[in-house]
Structure formats: C-alpha cells, structure tokens
Design a protein that fits this description.
This protein has 352 residues and is an alpha/beta fold. Helix content is 32%, strand content 20%. The chain has one domain: TIM Barrel (Alpha-Beta Barrel). The chain has an eight-stranded parallel barrel, surrounded by five helices. Strands 10-9-12-11 form a four-stranded antiparallel beta sheet. Strand 1, helix 2 and strand 2 form a beta-alpha-beta unit. Helix 8 runs parallel beside helix 11. The longest helix is centred in the middle third of the chain and has 18 residues.
Length: 352
C-alpha cells in the first residue's frame, strides 16, 4: 500500500518547487512565533535569512483567538510580541525570504475555540478579517493551529470542521490558501481526510511531542521516535483518499525538552541555545555519540535528578530520511529561533 501511495504523494501540490530530472524537490516549511525581546525566538529572522526556505514556506504567527472568540493581532509594537510579531517590515522580510507564506492563527484553550466556532456571526467576522488581512500583507494564506482535539466534546468537532469550510471558501474566493495543523495522535476526533474535504489545501501532521504521551514512571520518551514517526504518518495516510495524499505535510522537530528524572514536569520547546546552558551538556563528539538514542537519533542524558533530550542535525536528518522514504516531499519544521539545528546539505540533496 505504501509503495503505491508514494507515487501519489510526490505529485505536485501547493508550494512545490520545480521538478528535477530525478523527481520533485523537497519543499521545506518553517514556523516562527512572536515573543518578548531577549527570548530565543528573536533569532528567527537571522536564521531564515540564510535562504533555507527561499523556495519554500514561512509561517509566522501573527494572530491569536481571544477569550471572547475574536481575533487578536500579535503586534511587534507590543512588548510581549516585540520579536516576530506583525509589522509591515516583518511581513516584508518573511515575503523576501520565502516563496509562500502562511499566517499562523493559534489559540490556547477549548473555551477560546468554542467562543469562536459556536457563533456563526463570529465565524463570519473571522473569515472576513483573516481574508482581508492576509490579502493586505501579500501572504499566500492561513495556517490554522487549534490544538484542542483531545478535549472536544459534543458539537465541538462538527463546529471546527464547519469553521474550516467557511474559512476555506472565503480564502479561495480571494485567491488564497488554507493549511491546517493536526495531531500525531490518531485517537482523537481530528481526521486528516475530513479536514481536506472541508476545503483545506494542505494538512500538517505535527509528528513530535511524543514525550507527553507517557506516564511519569516510565522511561522518558523521545520527541519523535523513528518508528512512531512512520506509524503516525501511515495512520494519517489511511485517513486520506489516494488522490489527495500529495496534500499531506509532515511536521518535524528542531528543539528539546527538560523533565524530572522520572519524566514528570516536562518543559518542552527548549531551544538549542538554552540547552547548551543546561547542566551536563557536552559538545564532545564521543559524549554525544554515547548519548545518542538509536530509536530516535536524539541526544539524551540525566543529570542530578533531571532528564534532557534534544534534536540535533543528525537526528533531524534521520527523521527526514524516514519521511522521504515514504514518499513525502512537504516537510514543516518546528521551530525557528534559538539556534535550533537545521538539516545538513547532504540530507537535503539525498533523494532528489
């Protein structure tokens, strides 16, 4: 089944670069998010200015949903969003260093999601505002990142898909596109095929954060184990009709986490710049080799009652190899900023 699927998955889709004689090129996407001055996310513009996604996609988070279900712009003029928040200058830099741009819209709670999706008037207002805003800043479309799949109850799922349908129609009428982010946990009401049927142009499986899915007494899990990555991708693929499988994007990690010695109290999204300051960190090649986990290729160690795990370049390359072996050519990375690693040139050349 996977061999047949691969022939479909490499078909051209939104944002695909020109095909080489050996097949379509890899199309890379990256998220970036706003934060206060002095935080790791502030280095994101310097990182994407190396041209890593000049032919790919950048996805800055410029909007959130507030408690009243209305959109709030993350303005760079506000202290909490001083780095990577919206400003005409920041949006221009994003356009300069990418071929396509999706504005990410996020929220924190189910209450915020319900406050939006349960009120048709608010949905209509959100669709109008998103369409006009994205059009005005010259972006390609919108990336919806509402991560409440585990908490949905009653009509929540139906309202979510209805919202996507309204948004897709509004964006498409304006010549814009819709991307939607989904979980690697396939035991939720989120369905990849249903998202595409609602009108999304691409759907992203966020294949990371497996460390949160285990009890404190167990062995600490990796951010993205390789077998888990393959299984999650295969499960998402089963939900998508064959003609639509080229629209699946796989999200891969570039960050780390810190936890208690028994995997409790996890702090995720730890940047490489932060990890280098953690106790026990080593840049010695022999130490790194000894700490490398064969099941994920991530670097892991314990130090005085604390556990550490981060994704380095070799681990990113290993995850990319799994994805490419299964026919995927659209890869989105979380996250820019904090000197987080990037794929090696050799890995990017491999396989076309």
């Amino acid at each position: 089944m996977l061999a047949a699927a691969a022939s479909v998955l490499v078909a051209a889709g939104p944002g695909v670069a020109a095909a080489s004689p050996h097949g379509p090129r890899l199309v890379l996407q990256e998220w970036l998010y706003p934060g206060p001055a002095g935080t790791p996310t502030c280095s994101a513009p310097r990182e994407f200015a190396d041209g890593r996604v000049r032919q790919g996609v950048l996805k800055p988070e410029y909007m959130d949903v507030g408690n009243a279900g209305r959109l709030v712009v993350d303005l760079a003029s506000q202290p909490g969003d001083a780095c990577n928040g919206y400003s005409p200058r920041n949006a221009a830099e994003v356009r300069k260093w990418s071929a396509r741009q999706y504005m990410t819209v996020s929220l924190a709670t189910l209450h915020q999601e319900e406050a939006l999706t349960s009120h048709p008037a608010r949905v209509a207002a959100a669709v109008r505002r998103l369409t006009r805003f994205v059009k005005s800043i010259g972006f390609t479309g919108v990336d919806i990142d509402f991560e409440n799949y585990w908490s949905w109850k009653g009509p929540d799922a139906g309202r979510y898909y209805a919202f996507l349908t309204r948004l897709a129609r509004g964006l498409h009428a304006a010549g814009l596109r819709l991307q939607v982010d989904g979980p690697a946990d396939l035991d939720t009401p989120f369905n990849y095929g249903r998202v595409l049927a609602a009108g999304a142009d691409q759907v992203v499986i966020m294949a990371y954060d497996d460390e949160f899915g285990w009890p404190p007494s167990s062995v600490c899990k990796a951010v993205t184990p390789l077998r888990w990555l393959r299984s999650a991708f295969t499960g998402a693929l089963h939900q998508i009709p064959a003609p639509e499988r080229s629209r699946l994007v796989v999200g891969l990690p570039s960050y780390g986490y810190v936890a208690g010695n028994r995997c409790q109290d996890i702090t995720s999204n730890v940047s490489f710049a932060q990890m280098r300051r953690e106790p026990g960190f080593s840049s010695n090649p022999s130490v790194i080799a000894a700490r490398r986990d064969p099941g994920s290729q991530e670097i892991r160690w314990r130090w005085h009652g604390r556990f550490f795990d981060y994704v380095d370049q070799q681990a990113m390359d290993a995850k990319l190899a799994v994805v490419r072996s299964m026919g995927i050519r659209h890869v989105s990375v979380w996250v820019l900023g904090g000197q987080n690693p990037w794929f090696s040139a050799r890995a990017l050349r491999s396989g076309g």
